[in-house]
């Protein structure tokens, strides 16, 4: 039997948050969306505002928050290196104070709580593909550490609340996710390359483009998140969530040029410090526990994302 729940989504207007809110409403739930619009605007969720089951609250998760809900998805946090390095102290506060505040709320309500952790907890990994029992190789004082260590601390908090208060936590380690509603200026590789290609501007490859990533389409991540939240309470994760199909960044650039029919040239720029050389999730745990695996092939997902950016550029070519 389907029961209507009241669900809190933090980071509601971001890439993942907006798709999650949309899906939860479509499934018949009530959704309270929290966001401080640090890396997004209302635009991503504008189309949900007329739904009476949706409530949008402007709030920064680094401050305590009081609400009555059945479940919590804690997504609030800038996700792209450009964004999370813009205010490193705020990024750490969002990861750590945000987790403490949301866990405190979940503890009072005895609510299930999902934490959007990240493949960045593995740092620049020497184990490949990455399995959940790998502890990672993170530079604790590097330029990415505000995010990587912030997210690692958040995981520690989630498992401390689990051990100490028996809280039903769900920790998902999300790998690179892409799709419509990515921010055009957040510097992530897929949005950067698509916009550069559509404008016939040079496509900026950092390093020699041999570093790898594995890209998962947004609808696959949302399906995984919902299945995880619905799984038995003793399955806490951490669990990898992503697409194990691995590509070099140069391959991604070539594919986007091909799909957009662009005249752009490829240019090479210095590789940012601590940029992981390889990244691919081992998703056997998600397969075994949830029967989940990604369905959307890279070409299909990229086509949809390209169509989204084409529309945006048509509306505002600036
Ligand atoms: P996003 O930047 O599109 O969305 C994040 C949202 O959080 C934005 O709307 C932003 O305004 C909001 N936010 C930031 N700080 C906040 C604060 N202090 N209080 C309230 N709201 C705040 O990013 P996304 O891709 O949707 O990522 C969502 C979550 O998933 C993040 O926690 C991110 O770390 C995690 N994640 C994403 C990816 C990915 O590839 N997209 C990979 C791994 C993990
Ligand atoms: N990258 C690139 N050109 C760009 C943006 C990113 O070559 O214009 C590279 C970046 O150095 C990294 C990969 O693409 O190796 C993925 O970067 P992104 O910022 O999307 O996410 P990350 O996985 O590094 O967090």
- Please work out how many helical segments DSSP would assign: 9
Report the C-alpha radius of gyration, rounded. 19 Å
Strand content: 15-25%
Q: Enter the CATH topology name of the domain at 6-179 and 216-244 and 281-295.
A: Rossmann fold
Strand order of the largest sheet: 3-2-1-4-5-6-11
Q: Return the CATH architecture of the domain at 6-179 and 216-244 and 281-295.
A: 3-Layer(aba) Sandwich
Look at the helices and sheets and give the structural class: alpha/beta
Question: What is the helix content?
Answer: 25-40%
Helix-strand sequence: EHEEEHHEHEEHEEEHEEHEHH
Annotated CATH homologous superfamily of the domain at 6-179 and 216-244 and 281-295: NAD(P)-binding Rossmann-like Domain
Strands, total number: 13
Q: Overall 3D geometry?
A: globular
Low-pLDDT segments, ≥5 res: none
Small-molecule binders here are: nicotinamide-adenine-dinucleotide, uridine-5'-diphosphate
Q: Sheet with the most strands?
A: 7 strands, parallel
Please report the first level of CATH classification, the CATH class of the domain at 6-179 and 216-244 and 281-295.
Alpha Beta
Average pLDDT reading: 96
Oligomer: single chain
| Alpha carbon gap, first and last residue | 49 Å
List keywords for this structure.
single chain; 318 residues; Rossmann fold; two-stranded parallel sheet; 13 strands; 17% strand; globular; binds nicotinamide-adenine-dinucleotide
Could you explain the architecture of this structure?
The protein is α/β, with parallel strands linked by helices and 318 residues long. Helix content is 37%, strand content 17%. It has nine helices and 13 strands. The protein has a seven-stranded parallel β-sheet, with helices on both faces. Helix 3 runs parallel beside helix 4.
